[in-house]
Design goal:
The protein is 80% helix and 0% strand. With 174 residues, the protein is mostly helical. α1 crosses α2.
């Protein structure tokens, strides 16, 4: 739902940053809400999961949309268009983060005393709970901080596109 709603919501609000911030903040708060909700309150846990998933869907679309915007911004700022470099770096960082997340989860399970196919110790259950709630919740909230310094809004972006088009027309590239 969040993935489908991201583009129209961004267009309606006129801000990719606002949609991205909403996605990060609400999904982060939902993770923290899951931690505060007891395991016996399954219905409330599902509410947190559904709301958090919808809002995290916004971030999946917005992050790549914002990466695309950096191509024109970079071209405007430097005079060189670097589509390949920008997308490759973004893709590499995403893959690196995925690998580190998997490694981190495995390390957390190892130090917690997790044993596959066995009843888990209270320590292992606690680490699993923290790694599914507090850790991603805090990480999502921290991820929102750099966006507070993001200055490229729709008006600025359209102005940059106009300048780039004019430069290309003047150079006979259109």
């Amino acid at each position: 739902v969040g993935v489908v709603a991201a583009a129209p919501l961004s267009k309606k609000l006129g801000s990719k940053k606002a949609v991205m911030l909403a996605g990060l903040l609400v999904s982060g708060l939902c993770c923290l809400g899951m931690y505060l909700t007891g395991p016996e309150q399954i219905a409330f846990l599902y509410v947190w999961i559904v709301i958090g998933s919808i809002f995290s869907g916004l971030t999946y679309v917005m992050v790549w949309s914002m990466v695309a915007d950096t191509i024109e911004y970079g071209e405007w700022k430097t005079g060189a268009r670097a589509d390949g470099v920008i997308y490759s770096v973004a893709s590499f960082v995403q893959k690196l983060a995925t690998a580190l997340s998997g490694w981190g989860a495995a390390m957390l399970l190892a130090v917690s005393g997790y044993v596959a196919n066995a009843a888990q110790t209270p320590q292992a259950l606690s680490v699993i709970n923290l790694s599914m709630t507090i850790l991603p919740g805090v990480t999502l909230l921290i991820a929102a901080v750099p966006l507070l310094f993001h200055k490229l809004n729709r008006n600025e972006y359209n102005r940059i596109l106009g300048e780039l088009q004019k430069q290309k027309a003047d150079a006979g590239e259109c």
